[in-house]
Amino acid sequence: MNNAAPLILEISNLTVVRGGVRVLDIPSMELRENEVLALIGPNGSGKSTLLLTMACLIPLTTGEIRCRGELITAGRSVLAYRRRLAMVFQEPLLFDATVYENVAAGLKIRGMSREDVKKRVMSTLELFNMAHMADRSARKISGGEAQRTSLARAFALEPEMIFLDEPFSALDPPTRLALTEDLERILDETNTAAIMATHDQLEALRLSDRVAVVNRGRIVQSGPPVEVMNRPADEFVASFVGMENVLSGKVTACGEGLLTVMVMGRPIELAGSARTGDEAVFCVRPENITIITDQGGATSARNVFPAIIDKIVAMGGYYKLHLDCGFPLVASLTQQSLSALHMEKGKRVVASFKATAVHLIRAGNQ
Amino acid sequence: MELILEGIYKAIALLVTLDAEVLNITLLSLKVSGTATLISLVLGLSTGTLLALAEFPGKRLLVSIVNTGMGLPPVVVGLFVTIFLWRNGPFGFLDIMYTPTAMILAQAIIASPIVTGITLASIQNLPANLKLQILALGATRLQMVLILIREARLPLLAGVMAGFGGVISEVGASIMVGGNIKGYSRVLTTATVMETGRGNFDVAIALSVILLLLCFVINYILTRIQQRERPR
User: Fold this and answer.
1) How far is A139 from chain B (nearest CA, A)?
2) Least CB-CB distance to B136: which of A82, A96, A98?
3) pLDDT of amino acid A1
4) A65 and A205 share a domain?
5) Which of A237, A260, A295 is the last residue of a domain?
6) What was the pLDDT predicted at B231?
7) What is the least distance, in Å, from the CA of A237 to any CA of chain B?
8) Is residue A2, in this structure, part of any structural domain at all?
9) Which parts of chain A sit beneath pLDDT 50?
10) Does one domain contain both A219 and A312?
11) How many domains does chain A have?
């Protein structure tokens, strides 16, 4: 995504108040051409409300929505604006008709001629590898095929931007993966800008150019996926992006961009700046922790701690080791490493991580 | 048993010979109940859709009233329509008491809550986000409503069948506001009541068989339409 690409969508001072409660408060947000923005956050954080508000499907209380600089107000401009975008929901929401009729729905609504509708629908179905299913009833296809039809219905409109509200969350993992791959390819081929709400970090990492973390109706952090994943702005973002090791302690030494923070009597070195005596909150990703079985093992890491394995949790493709280093620490390990190192509960190991692998969330004297 | 068989033979005879009086009664029944069903369809479809989609204070109360109306006793409707259309009543000036028009009016009042209630339930039964999805496809509000009605067409046809079935078989209101006048406002149900009262059970059974056949044919056609609409 090019940062100089023209803006498609600009949101400013947007609020939505329901029953006296401010459920959405977005001072500013934007989407550029070809950009894929992922909205991540827990259930009920306001992702869907934000998408629906941006699509002018629910009313905003205050604020402005601009599409290519044009202010979207009530009436005809809303209809014209809606016809420049497309939206896919968590449920496929297909009509009681054939796959073809479903994909054609938005085009027919726009009054497109029968020949043009046919051409567009068939080319879109080809794009989604669904041409052979055109005459099938939408009520008799699988969940994955139904969501694929829903995506095809949206892309058939050739929208300037597409809003996706957790489109794959109800699907089984293999179908989800296949659809994610297809969506990635089609977004790339069609150069469509997209905003996708998801609570799956991997989906966000894979598809998006930028991630915005939503919590309690506010965007608490926005930036490139890698930055948000590795440098969370606060404890909430840290825990949401899988940064399980959020630690805090008093800064006991600082200098040359390095801090020493005492955590439960253990010194941890990390990159950052603060003053001696400050309370520091920092985090380290489980993937950045190395486990060795003997203390004499060579490591260039500044932080090396003897540890006892408290618990081993299988996570599917990998394992999480809950360690007691005098403070709790979680490390992740592949199945291969787990077997090679003969890891088991109660085993003594050494955990190490680099000072640069630690992200200082905040430091102060509170 | 003999009486029933005799009635069935009589019905066949009346149908085969195209008895003029029976034909008139049957056609009037169809005309009155068909028109009433059409009126209730227009009223019920619009009111039911509005009630399903709009949010306003007192909606629950109104929905409860509609649901109660689905079981409106025809004699009560007949009584009130009579009071309103009576010579000294508020609409007495219309001078339609004891006419098929009054019967259509009464039957439309009976069928409208049935169609409204079933429309309301059918639209509300659609997925909650479907309305938003249709709008997101670029639909105007009118297009959205029409698509929602199309999506609910199968239960809506059931509503039409229920409405028609309710009015073609009712007798209380028709006899009260139509007067069962021979050759003018006599329909199958009122004629059946009259013939039973006279002890002409064979004619009464014959009329009942014709009524049942009529209901069956109408519902068969509607069911065919309904089932044809189902995607395979």
Assistant:
1) 8
2) A82
3) 54
4) yes
5) A237
6) 53
7) 29
8) no
9) none
10) no
11) 2
